[in-house]
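quick one if you have a minute, typing this from the bus. theres a chain ive been looking at and ive put its sequence and its fold in token form underneath. please have a look and point out which stretches look like helix strand or loop to you. anything you notice is useful, everything is just below.

***
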Amino acid sequence: MADDETPLRYDPQQVETRWQRRWEEERRFAARPEPGRQACYVLEMFPYPSGKIHMGHVRNYSIGDVIARLRRMQGYAVLHPIGWDAFGLPAENAAIQHGAHPAKWTHDNIAHMRTQLRRLGFSYDWEREVATCDPKYYRWEQLFFIRMLEKGLAYRRRATVNWCAHCATVLANEQVIDGRCWRCDGAVTERELEQWFLRITAYADELLRDLDRLTGWPERVVSMQRNWIGRSEGAEIAFPLDGRPGEVRVFTTRPDTLFGVTSVTLAVEHPLVRELIAGRPEAAAVEAFAARVRATPATERTAGKEGVATGAFCRHPITGARLPVYVANFVLMGYGTGAVMAVPAHDQRDFELARALGLPVRVVVQPDGEALDPATMAAAWEGPGTLVDSGDFSGLASEVAKGRIAAAVAARGLGGPKVTYRLRDWGISRQRYWGAPIPVVYCEGCGVVPVGERDLPVVLPEDVTITGGSGSPLAQHEAFVRATCPRCGTPARRETDTMDTFMESSWYFLRYVSPRRDDVPFDPAELAFWMGRDGVEQYIGGIEHAVLHLLYSRFFTKVLRDLGYVRLGEPFQNLLTQGMVIKDGAKMSKSKGNVVDPDYLIERYGADTARLFCLFAAPPERDLDWSDQGVEGMSRFLGRLWRLVHGVVPRLAPVGTRATGAGADQDLHRLVHRTIRRVSDDLGERPHFNTAIAAVMELVTGVGAAAEQVSPAALREAVDTTLLLLAPFVPHVASELWEASGHADALDAAAWPAVDPAALVQETVELPVQVNGKVRARVTVPAEASEADALAAALADPRVQSHVAGKALRKQVVVPGRLVSLVV
């Protein structure tokens, strides 16, 4: 009979669709709160419905599915939901390019991707599926915004913002990566616009402090957030303007260098600049310089140090010295106060500008054992030292002087010690259509007024024309713009900006606990059961979200806690950041032509092979190098497993028979339980799926080798254990073989196997014996043999004797259970 005619041939398409249909019909993965059972919430970052899943999705969701299935087998009540991050620019761009409405494009993509995810057999509770473009979803987001507005956590102001011309919208600071748009990689410039902000800075200290609680997060992510929040201790110092009222306030971490200030430098966007140059001969040069700097991406502004004098002066807060005021390209309005005190001798940026413009350099901190000369300095000295030429503070160590000088400034009413943060408030206004409307109106009499709660949601209209021109089409939608003031009843104008799509992803994990409740955003009982006070037990996604989604989610959770909606302080207990999928030396992408289509992979090899390769090829946090040979290898392994189990089915003891034999039975029993321990350990707190799978592969080899020598009971234990251990990884084929081997109950309902400690105890061990570093023999000794007995057995072995006879034994080392080493 040919191979393709054998009844043992594995047909993944038939097997997998059969089990997927059965799981759906039986609602096998529907999550229900069960008092008395421990809850486990497993979640992968939800996808943007771009149209098709890619191999990165397959890897990410396979990781989550292993954990969810494992926890079910371990007795947990598991919540494993899925949904769609459905608002965003790609849908709008598709509408422009293909003439498809964003809503239709999005829902069509969701339908296709849903089919793809179902075909992979992921154990999602599809009854909890959400899409963030659904008004039933974003109505709660609009309510949260209104509550933040009432608490002063949402506000509107004119601000210099990051602008992506290609996407025609504003970007938050966190969405600008090396001066380019996180979405399209286009250059980012700055503009002044009226914008809505969320006051994330009000939570800066708590966001920073609570990073210490995130012991289940990768240290790299914690470090990235710590650096982004950027706590700095220093002083705020006011420099009074000369000849006019007002002052320039700066923040510095080096108040010890205050006596070395030779000028004050402003960002070109600083609101004082226009006032200082009004009517002055320097105005034209400053305005031209400012226009050129504004058109330069922020990251490129610091490449060379340039500045222009404003013609204005201010006074030193202690000495009263007259100091010129400059504008410079490297001072950014988004950091500190948008102004710096220039200390060329002790700040490299100020030093470069001073040398370029011929400005004075004044040394006020001398390093130990050196005497800096301003005339010969090639670079600024930014280290510690002893203060000189600093009035009453001369002779102090710089660290001591920091506090003393800050206190002196405070005593004069011109500032004092201060803690500041790099973090800036989150700008959420977007000048695009496909997003959640901001629920406010503008009334001539009442000003900014939130929409009434009973009028939520403010629904995004679908009868718009999207052309790709500047601005949102909502501004031209008269029926949408025309509104009534909820406070006074007079005509009002509705806000036409939409919310940043990171708003939706900052709380979606909470909505999964009760997505069908229309009366409350979160069912209190389900929230308490699934999340308790600790949040999602296991969260999985890419490290690229470290200071975007992950930071925003932490902020949002704390805000919702303070608004009384949740009792959580942090959203995610444990975070696993999986690596990328690499092919031909680069991340898979259409532009590089190195994409592997998951549909093709599933059609040719089956979902279980695709899952197994993604889990086996690399540890989850490492990048995965694609290998067609590796995929073939996983397919061959599953075929071998299929044939092995079907081949031994006639010899298996009845289900439930205990293995009690000796000899070959005992050896197989020991291998089974060693494998259970290895796999259980490898799927522990920091999972290593690749080594767990390798251990099961060794077990399969062992079962095949022992099948003819062991009893039916020992074979039954080995086969059942193999399928139980493989169930989280390859659930379709494991379920099919479980049923084929005589089990009436589904594999999904089976418990994770427990280790028999007695089976791990060895009666004897084999020790390699080295002589002068080379293995010359192997000896078998009792497992509990003493060092003396192990050494005696080694010396008694004829092969060892031939290498040590007539030679002096200079050193002997016995590692119990491992080896004997002799030096002669």
